[in-house]
Sequence to fold (569 residues):
Amino acid sequence: MDMSVDFAGLKLKNPILTASGTFGFGLEFKRFGNLESLGGIIVKGLSLKPREGNPMPRIAETPCGMLNAIGIQNPGVEVFLKDRLPKLPWKTLPVLVNLYATDATEFGELAKVLSTEEGVAALEVNVSCPNVKEGGIAFGQDPSQITKVAEAVKKNAGNKPVIIKLSPNVTDIATCARAAEDGGADGISLINTLSGMAVDIERRAPRLTNVIGGLSGPAVKPVALRCVFQAVNAVKIPVIGLGGISSAEDAAEFLLVGAAAVQIGTANFLSPDTAFKIAEELPKVLERVNAKSLDEFRGSLKLPK
Amino acid sequence: MSANNCRAVKVIDVKPLGHSSPDEEIIELKLEYPGWRSGWRVGQFVMIRPVSWPLDLIWGRPFSICNADDNTLTILFQVVGRGTKRLAELTTGDKVNIWGPLGSFFSKPKDRPILMLAGGMGIAPFCGYVDSHDQPENLKLFFAHRPPLENYPLNSISEKVEVEDLRETKPEDILNIIARIDELVKEYADKKGLIVACGPTPFLRTVRSASIKYGVEAELSLENRMACGVGACLGCVTKDSTGHHTQVCTTGPVFKATDISLED
Fold:
């Protein structure tokens, strides 16, 4: 079965991408599978300057999920372009870069730096990180800010597709999706993590130093699926679905509600070869459910009359 | 690509060591050797996640490689949480996903006195260290522990090297342990030796301080919570000597004492 996807002009050999923050810079996973068997990789969120992230402890395991409050630790865009990107097979593997900044102007600057980089296939804009004080989720909860950031990035991104990554921590996801579209985004991805908390009754203390973190993993899948469904029906631009996908069947569910592609996130921690296995197994799953093609299957959800 | 880096292997044996209460029990887990073509080095670790685990436990669990030969990989653990409790329930023939060997490793210089300092489960890598060292007569182990000594696999070590231990049964014992570590580190500084240490962070903090005070080279293997073990999640970082976060899983787990800070 032809699994290729044209996502806003970006050619993917299959719809399986890796979610930012769960796949490092891709190089960390080279020993566990063939990177080029994936549709693409989305690297760790990058900011203009290096960031240390939040104090430890900043991860906690919860039932069917995990909380993180990493806080966008990253080496900065310059180090990525100089030391990491050249080591990736970017000519044959779409490398999407996730962007983090504290205001629309800085997002624009970051986009400009990346706009001329041949190895960068597309920009995913993080307006939804729950773990940073400035920017992050504040943008993602305000539709006017989403539009503003989308405009700033699009204006400076050259010919690179711009994807806005949305937060589920909002009242109306459809409004946020439309806000991204209004700002000129070429696509959207959702969901980022759900705001969550875990506490230790022995120590009577939060499990994360940051107190609140982002919940991800299988626990969030129903929320993610609902958000993707609502977003797909709210905008004309293509949607990437993510949130709790840990099997090819899970991936197929997101495609069924209309996602053009999906991202594998926390499941990369279940085993470092998870994304590779899902990419391999997805065609078999589609064949099993009698899909004629990926395009025929996508969005073919039968709703109750 | 090498599929050998992540594969399912069979459990050969799950054996509690010693005869203690469940909360003091140390489990020896023997697995099929995962067939790593490039072998492994002492101090490296593996991530283990049983195939049977449902999705309520997300992460694999990191363990120092205790020892391995052509057929068997041995891991030691104490039941301390949800994951280790389930690991202790594995039986022969069960399958576990294992990825590794991961991280940095201890150096093993010849013709130099080496002091191994182990705190609790930090004993694990030293079983392999002793077995793989060309001149075990140059090695000595100091072991600080809470469960009884017979709960640890010390036989193979004590046959080859001098072992000294101190058991912590009450809070005051910690002071004796700290004092003894200080004396031993000074002794190995005078001998121009090497310190290799593994254990909980407060234990390693003591070793680090003493090694810097006396100017002796020391390598510390850190234990830390981690989700992926491969450098992706950034959940296991520690502060390096310049105050920047560095990943325990990929830069470590074995660090030179002077390269990290271990501050609270």
